[in-house]
Amino acid sequence: MTTAHVVATHYVDLTGSAPEGIWFAPGRVNLIGEHTDYNDGFVLPFALEQRALVAAGSRSDDLIVMRAIDLDETVRMPISDLAPGRGGWSAYPAGVLWALREAGHRIGPITLVLSSNVPLGAGLSSSAAIECAVMAAACDLFELDISPIERAKLSQRAENEYVGAPTGLLDQAASTLCQRETGLFLDCRTLEATLVPLPLSSKGFEILVLDTHTPHSHVDGEYGERRATCEEAARLLQLPALRDIDDLEAALAKLPDERMRRRVRHVVTENERARLAFTLALQGHLEELPGLLDASHASMRDDYEITVPTVDLAVTAAKTAGALGARMTGGGFGGCIIAWCRSGDGSSIGEAVERAFAEAGFTAPAWFVAHPSEGAGRLI
Ligand code: GLA
User: Going by CA atoms, what residue is nearest to atom 2 of ligand 1?
Assistant: First the structure.
């Protein structure tokens, strides 16, 4: 049975009737531009084949009914109870409905039956995939005319205000706006979004995604602490955001402590790398990108201090085994790395990292070769 059949079947079991449709939204990896989104900077993600599916239909009572097939849990709530403060997985779908209503859109009672094959807690935006799939379903079911970027922003609002994770726009924008065989270059201030071709296989490359199985969370303190430090630095520099730094050395000289200077240096240099990667990709020079991935990882490790031993070992072992470039992807403190490989090398590089993990006594990693895929939409 395909996953679409599974969500449809569960929907019928739950409601006694067929869903009005099935919608999807993917997870993502960020190629480059990490911890830049909430600094009004630049990101360059692509969407994964792994995606969340939701079978949905409107209801005639006053309930929101949400079922997570993978967890075998069903949550029912009166639509009038939609309010931040709810924990657990149902905060993601409920948060999207809440954000839509907060923005003045008419939403009604709805059944949402969810399943996802985006690995959880791996930094691959499993939560954004759920949010953006529910957003796509709600917009169609309630005939809401909302642009893709606005859908992404409302999904981000769900994550920030309903779930309580102070994240930027990267994940929801990627899950909503990406297309097959492309990356998405997003200016997180102007919201100008440009699709950039990533013809990996025809250029002789593949990108390995390796999950270190070191779980992470954005609701806990480290992510928020980095964000707060950036905002404090911008305030001290009397700039709207770190994006506005023109002269890095002059800015660093004005900041009070070494840790803050390192954080700022990461953001400024990462923005430069993201812009350069975008330009090079547009010019078709994909072979120049792996070097930028290496520099990004060093910056996250040494300046932003968001890597952990498993992640650093994965990057080093992948490089030793022949990866052309490698970096942690996502919010950090665990999760996944991406390794830019020559076509056909991904599996042997994954196996080499697995051996290195075994020698270090770390839990075995999981890996797959990523294929830049399409953003949220209707499946059936
Ligand atoms: C997480 C957040 C994003 C972004 C990245 C770091 O994935 O959800 O908004 O800040 O971390 O680049």
Answer: 167
Longest dimension (CA), the chain: 66
Under DSSP, is residue 59 helix (H, G, I), strand (E, B) or coil? coil
How many angstroms separate the CA atoms of 265 and 190, rounded? 22
- Tell me 158's DSSP state: I
Rounded to whole angstroms, how far apart are CA atoms 209 and 222?
A: 23
208 closest CA partner among 320, 313, 332, 345: 345
Check if the beta carbon of residue 290 is closer than 8 Å to that of residue 277: no
Given the DSSP bridges, would you call strands 63-68 and 182-187 parallel, antiparallel or unpaired? unpaired
Catalytic residue of the set 40, 171, 303, 345: 171
pLDDT bin (cut points 50, 70, 90) of residue 2 is confident
Distance of CA 139 to the CA centre of its chain: 21
Alpha helix (H) ranges present in the chain? Answer: 3-15, 91-102, 126-141, 148-157, 170-177, 221-236, 248-253, 258-282, 289-302, 309-320, 346-360
Cα of 33 from ligand 1 centre, angstroms: 9
219: pLDDT strictly greater than 60: no
How confident is the model at residue 220, as a pLDDT? Answer: 66
Residue that has been written with the tokens 């709810």 in this structure: 86
User: What percentage of the chain exceeds 90 in pLDDT?
Assistant: 96
Query: Closest ligand 1 atom, CA of 38?
Result: 10
Distance 90 CA to ligand 1 centre (A): 21
Q: How many CB atoms lie within 10 A of CB 316?
A: 15
Residues touching ligand 1 (Cβ under 6 Å) are 30, 34-35, 37-38, 167-168, 170-171, 218, 330-331
- Mean pLDDT for 126-145 is 98
Distance CA(35)–CA(12), nearest Å, equals: 42
Is residue 140 part of the annotated active site? The answer reads: no
Q: Is 111 helix (H, G, I), strand (E, B) or coil?
A: strand
pTM of the predicted protein model: 0.97
pLDDT tens-digit readout, 334-355? 999 999 999 999 999 999 999 9
